[in-house]
Amino acid sequence: MTFSSNSALLSSFWQLRDVKGEDPRETILRDRKRSGRPLSASVTAHREKVDCIIRANRRVKQKEIANAVGISKERVHHIVTIVLGYRKVSARWVPRQLTVEMKAQRKDMCTQLLELQLSSFLHEYLQQNIPQLPQHV
After folding, report:
1. What pLDDT is recorded for position 85?
2. Which CATH architecture has domain 44-95?
């Protein structure tokens, strides 16, 4: 390395420094804001499109979602796994947690099933296990 490349490296390092005061212990290293393309792939519209596509077809692949929405596969993966909270189970996207509606529906179905099975069980149990009372004339 030459002296000029070292000085360029040092000057770029010092450009990253943000000096609060004269005391070197108060110096904070951080990147300055840069111009560039903003993250537009994680906007709400893309999240909603991805969610609609997954709800329509739980077996859809990330590549197909990326082509349909027009964003990268990496952004699709981030939206699906981190933002929406889905995971792959047996080649299907499933939510990580049940929604309130899903919990209520599951509770209603279990209650109906329990009542149905309990009533049929009691009916059979009572018929088989209660001895017939002798009838006195």
Report:
1. 86
2. Orthogonal Bundle (1.10)
